[in-house]
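Worked example 2:
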Amino acid sequence: MESNPQSTDPPIKTLDPFRRAVLRGLGVLLPPLLTIVIFLWVGNTVNNYLLEPMETGTRELLIRHFRGDIRSRQDVTETEIRDGEDANAMRPYQSMPDEQLVPSSYYDYVAEHSGRPLPQATTADELIREYVNRRFLPRYIVIPTFLCVFLLILYLLGKFLAAGVGRIFWIQIERVIHRLPLVRNVYSSVKQVTDFMFSEPQLEYTRVVAVEYPRKGIWTVAFMTGESLLDIRGAANEPVVSVLIPTSPMPFTGFTVTVKKSETIDLNITIEQAFQFVVSCGVVVPPQQLAEALAAREQNSMARLTEDSGL
């Protein structure tokens, strides 16, 4: 009597319920969390490298302008000066601890909007700086103004670069950048990413197809770009088409191949869904394709059960 040989294959380890629940929760939490992190990073970058320098420059210009209103006691008469004893007097200048005089309207504005008594040692320059910050540079004014100015600059820059003179000027600048040993490598990489994100595609895709590439039995999602060369059509003795085989995760790069039109399969997905499929390396499957796959799997299972029960 022969004994059944014991299998030497290692047992398949399955995730325990705790680890499975943790991984499922991580999969649900990571997409919104990473989205928030990316937006925060972009916001902090814009704030640190654009908003704050512009705000600092504007502040220094305003302070330099309003600093011209500071006077000394020799420039005005005593009847125009008010000090701590007659702070409510209707006099145009307020005496400060450093013996400088500031306009009373500046002093009253800061005292009214600070919500606390001003320090006794506040100098005239410090008061002017506080006045500029509270009067002209509060956040509810700075941020909308910055956004409007930033969008206007982007619009004017885009119009300028779209014109002939601007395009030639920018080409010359890029030539200089490409001659710099280290900068050109970083610039080229960043430019590829920005061109992919913000530039309009150069190719006009007609539809999404599947072709057997790089060999028979391996199916690849491709974008049909149009009819191919006439000589290739003559050699194939049937219509041929040009398709772009995209590479993940950058679908705008890949290989252009010519295939027989009869060897392509039209896919029931949109171009946007095909982009998502390629960028996600096949993880994001269009809903209708996933539903059809599940339905086909259920039909196969039911057919198998029917055959087993018939036996």
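Residues 163 and 211 are 41 Å apart (CA to CA). The mean pLDDT is 82.
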